[in-house]
Amino acid sequence: MWRGCLATLAGGEPYESEPFALRTVVDGVTSPATTYVVQVTRLEDSLVLTWVRHASSDRQEQRLADLQRLGDLGWANWNVAGREASWSPQVFTILGRDPADGPVRLTGLPALAVPEDRPALSRAVDALLHEGLPLDAPFRVRGTRGVRHLRLAAEPVADLHGTPVEVHGFLQDLTARRRAELALVESERAIVTQHDVLQAERTLVARLQNALLPLPQRAVELAGLRVEVAYLPAQAGIHVGGDWFSAIELPDGDALFVVGDVAGHGVGAVATMAQLRFTAKGMVITGSSLTGALARLNTLLLHSRDSHGTATMVLARYQPARRRLVWAQAGHTRRCCCATAR
């Protein structure tokens, strides 16, 4: 307050303090706190200080004004018989209407709404005035701040004959809430769309993998061996496509076993898996050694579309005449391939 007084004395601009509480002590008894505001005005080379006491009713009015401002709502009353209306200042703010123009009669309120919302609001107002039904209607207005989403809630006060003579209610600005709801709906729609895309890709990958790598329904008799397959992906759903195996009999009677894994998931991993799986078998069938096939496959992977892709593969050749298993491995992780003799 002292700094405010000095500023007024130096510059001449009036000063008004923030509300503050003051207690007085009379005969040793402390009175309840009273709220004051000090107003300072310059008068020539002197200052005039005015102490304004705020009664409890003033504080209640201030709290009501704060409540309306913080809640983006204001109260409104309409006298149906006298066709008079009274609005709180917050209603003018919500509607973007100059208080000098005065409030609008209840029957004229629908004219402030956007054309699409006028019929529903008019019907709600008619039902309130003629049937005494409470009104709780959303509508939109267009002003300098763009389109605003509002809510009008009102109820009638009837005479002894049940005829509405007065209407009181409130107007609330729901624009921020509506925007949040629309953003949430859009987010949910995007999530659903993304879920559908992922589901479609998941189905495609599963079908591709099943077409390229069908799991045998029973054990396979191969070069005197009984071969069985167990396949359990670490992750289900879209995270499939990188693992593969092969078990075939070569033209000379030997058995070829292949177990591999392409880094990554999805359609790209399925495509690389198919390329390596079929190329590996073709190379060994046409006479390549196991290590030679792995070296050529490494070159193939380096020159593929994804030059940074990696894979792991174990090639094993079983010679039934000598009961001998020869194998070679390359890649980032060790795998094992097992078969049992009959």
UniProtKB/TrEMBL annotation:
Signal peptide: none annotated. SUPFAM superfamilies: PYP-like sensor domain (PAS domain). Pfam families: PAS_3, SpoIIE. It comes from the Bacteria. Gene3D superfamilies: PAS domain, PPM-type phosphatase domain. GO terms for molecular function: phosphatase activity. Keywords: Hydrolase. The keyword Hydrolase applies. Residues 251-333 form the PPM-type phosphatase domain. Residues 86-170 form the PAS fold-3 domain. This is Protein phosphatase. It comes from Streptomyces haneummycinicus. The lineage of its organism: Bacteria, Bacillati, Actinomycetota, Actinomycetes, Kitasatosporales.
